[in-house]
Write a structure and sequence with these properties.
The protein is mainly α. It folds into 2 domains: about 1-30, no CATH class; about 35-160. The protein has 5 helices and no strands. The protein has helices spanning about 35-75, 85-110, 115-130, 135-145, 150-160. Keywords: Membrane, Transmembrane, Transmembrane helix. Pfam families: Zn_Ribbon_1. This is Zinc-ribbon domain-containing protein.
Length: about 160
């Protein structure tokens, strides 16, 4: 080994150059911790469920706005839709809003590694698969991450242990 400051020959195990006094630093091997499949994907799945639920909540907001506009059209007697449509849109908007709240809850639970979030996300993933295209993609991804038996064991290891006290 040679000193890169003065060019003198230095023995392999020596920490300082005998000629100029330059310090040599030993290289420390870096080891990377291999994350499991569940650890790699659970946080992303939680973020995706939160974003998807925000989109669903926007759909609920659209139902409420359309219902309000239709109510005003009916109230002022300019013709328009039958009178049962605005209350029906309110009911649909409320159901959609409740479903989006479950999605927000699942996303928050996955990000915080809550023990109950895995099962809630699996159930929501099954239902989301019928909502083409985003729900289908999210449902398949959620089931791929959380459904296998090995994933259950890995998730339980990383999940927060809640005390019964």
């Amino acid at each position: 080994m040679f000193c890169d400051k003065c060019g003198a020959t230095v023995p392999q195990n020596q920490r300082f150059c005998g000629n100029c006094g330059r310090a040599f630093y030993t290289m420390v091997p870096v080891t990377y911790v291999q994350q499991s499949r569940v650890q790699q994907h659970v946080r992303m799945l939680g973020i995706l469920w939160t974003a998807y639920s925000a989109l669903v909540a926007l759909g609920s907001l659209a139902c409420f706005i359309v219902a309000a506009v239709m109510t005003n059209i009916i109230r002022f007697g300019n013709g328009g839709p039958p009178a049962f449509i605005p209350p029906l849109l309110h009911i649909i908007g409320t159901v959609i809003l409740i479903l989006s709240m479950f999605g927000f809850l699942a996303g928050w639970g996955l990000i915080n590694r809550e023990p109950w979030a895995r099962m809630l996300t699996i159930v929501l993933s099954f239902f989301a698969m019928f909502k083409v295209p985003f729900g289908t993609a999210l449902g398949i991804y959620g089931l791929w991450v959380l459904l296998p038996e090995a994933s259950e064991r890995e998730y339980e290891l990383t999940a927060k242990k809640t005390s019964a006290a």
